[in-house]
Amino acid sequence: MIVVFRTRGNDWDKFVHVVRHHKQDINQAGAEHVWVHRNRKHPDEWMMVQGWPDKATFDKFAEGKGKELDQEAGVKWTDVSTWEEVEV
To answer: What is the model's pTM?
Structure first.
C-alpha cells in the first residue's frame, strides 16, 4: 500500500532532517519505502510517499510516532491518501 502526503511548508531543510533522522524508526514501524519530494517550480509544495504492507500497520504508526514526527518537523498535511498497489 502506498500513502501519499501533500502539504505546503516553509522549512524544507528541517523537514528533510527529521525524516532522515527518524527513517530507521519509520522503517522499524513497518514502512518499506520513504520518499520526499519538493515541487521544483513551487518549492513550498511538498510531497512524501511511503510504502506500507497494509493499512492497519500504517494506521498504528500514524496515530503514535507519525503524529510526533509531524509535530517535530513542523508539518501539517493538507492531504493524505492511501493507494493499493498492483504488480504488473
So the answer is: 0.91
